[in-house]
Specification:
Distance between the termini: 48 Å
Radius of gyration: 20 Å
Helix content: 25-40%
Length: 239
Amino acid sequence: MSRSGQTEPAGPVIEVEFALREGNYPFLRGSAVEECTFELAKMVPRRDGGHTEYFSVTGADPARIAALAEEHETAEVSLLTEYDRGGLFEFRVLGNCPAHRLAELGALPQVVEATDGTGRIVADIPAGCDTGAVIDAFLTAVPAADLTAKRGKESVTPLFTLSGVRQVLRTRLTDRQFEVLVTALEAGYYEWPRECSGEDVAEELRVSSATFAEHIRAAERKLLTLLFERSELGAPGRR
């Protein structure tokens, strides 16, 4: 455990970076055992006090990653999407997770990744939080962590990247719902004033107005749930 950069950097938001080189955490251990890469796509708090974390894993057999993750009592794992030598996983975390601990302390994890057993975590500490107290509490809770950087910035970074959103969205939406949503957006359906009506988009998609309305409402509901969910969502269903 170490802390560096005692001088507080300028800026209303403090971005901190930690290195992890050991620890029995699913993403860190999995990357070491399978010699692969874990990257956090999205992290969502749940009402039970835990978090749901979506990790993209590359360079490993998804079945082996799932089997390794199931050995951890504080995490439940589901494979959402499988691709060549990897997949998108949903981890329901109840504890013993450095990103979870940072979130409990008031920080906002932005980057959580591990490659071949070496981990890296970047988090934003919002204005109003005691940066030193957050760092000290985290390093006490995660003794294998080292503070490697501390910088000031003007605003909090969005909680997940565009690529991460797309990955998770494709697991939540049916192919048709995704197509309808993208077509409506590109056609100007969401501009103000609208550049096209629902009937126009339905005609472009060659479906009825009622079918368009059904798909767009289902897609919008899933999107809003994804952005603002505060409770556990089960494995994504197709309907």
